[in-house]
Amino acid sequence: MKTVKIGFVGCGAISGIYFRNITNRFKEIEIIGVCDLIRERAEKAVREYKIPKLYNDMYELFADPEVDIVLNITRPYEHRDVTIAALNAGKHVYSEKPLAASLEEGKEIMALAKEKGLMVGGAPDTFLGAGIQTCRKLIDDGVIGDVIGCAGFMICHGHETWHPDPEFYYKYGGGPMFDMGPYYLTALVNLCGNVEAVSAMTRTTFPERTITSQPHYGEVIKVDVPTLYAGSMRFTNGAVGTLYTTFDVYYPGQARLEVYGSKGTLFVPDPNGFGGQIRLFRPQEGMEDIPLQFDYAENSRALGLADMAKALQTGRPFRANSNQTFHVLEIMEGFAASGRMGKEVAIESRFDRLPLMNPKMEHGVLDAQF
Questions:
Q1: Closest to 177 measured CA to CA, from 123, 126, 229
Q2: What gap in Å lies between CA 116 and CA 107, rounded to an integer?
């Protein structure tokens, strides 16, 4: 079977792990070419990973008939424009998270993809890793009984002390919910199912941030988005969950993600990773460490892209699809709207979980059918 060829729009910080994994791990996709507004970044990638083509801009990339899927790894507020342009050029698109910077932009993408008959997928794909897949199997097998609720916490003091270009985290499409919320929410909807309503309180604690990392040391960022969300979710199955995300709080380590059942509690690993420790507490057995039951415990970004490529080859559905990324986007937008209006917000989109990964697959090769 021929490989599916990927064209990169954007060669920023996150691109490195995509370059490495597509080059060295996933056997059914390959990089055909790249472009970036900062040409030196694209030139470096071409040299380092022996990429065949360097495009002058994204429109040249879209016009290349060899490109099967466009990988959109631009900044969040640019996701809509790049994805829409690629779809209009007849290309399938896989986008970094979030799907778009607003619900209206997400609706526009969904409508155009449907009109054109094209596939749109997107990050995060960490839910396909060994950690979340094992947790879902435990839940599906009834190990913790009926799901009663869940809770997630992402607590840190922002990115201006370490990130080389932190400003966009505090602008349109940024903030802790739109930045890190996709990891937690994607995990939770895969573990607990569809969300039907949300509510939240939000605040912007520090109206300005001073950058202390290079190369923008000393520059001041005006904060345009909420930097603390305390959100609640009602799932279709009756479970009630909470998600707390903030860039305002000092915290000594990674916060937690938990799912509560009628028979026990599951302590889920960091959804920003693919593996991690799973712990299970049940009153009779006490606390147990649960071994991972699936592949891809290491950093496997591009796993969702490889799964999408397999779907393009075979015609089967793919797991990191736009129904999922749109549902997550609507939940995040619902939190923001609830914070502004002070009332519960209904979630109109519906998300149906797709089958678990096949634990017996050859590493780097995705299952041909579910």
A1: 229
A2: 14
pLDDT tens digit sequence for 273-325: 999 999 999 999 999 999 999 999 999 999 999 999 999 999 999 999 999 99
State the pLDDT confidence band at 254, using cuts at 50, 70 and 90.
confident
* Sign of the dihedral through C-alpha 180, 320, 87, 196: negative
| Mode of pairing for the β-strands spanning 208-210 and 120-122 | unpaired
Q: For the residues of 279-299, what is the DSSP string, one character each?
A: EEEETTTEEEEE---SS--S-
Residue type, 140: D
Domains, the chain: 4-122 (3.40.50.720), 126-290 (3.30.360.10)
Tell me which DSSP letter residue 128 carries. G
Instruction: Name beta bridge partners: 122.
Output: 95
Q: How confident is the model at residue 112 (pLDDT cuts 50, 70, 90)?
A: very high
Which of the four pLDDT bands, split at 50, 70 and 90, describes residue 115? very high
Residue 225: count of CB within 10 angstroms of its CB: 19
Tokens 């709207």 belong to 337
CA 335, distance to chain mean position in Å, is 17
The encoded tokens of residue 332 equal 């995040």
DSSP states of 27-94 as a string? TTEEEEEEE-SSHHHHHHHHHHHT-SEE-SSHHHHHT-TT--EEEE-S-GGGHHHHHHHHHHTT-EEE
Candidates 283, 289, 181; CA nearest to 241 is 181
Which residue has tokens 């596939």? 119
Euclidean distance between CA atoms 269 and 251, whole angstroms:
17
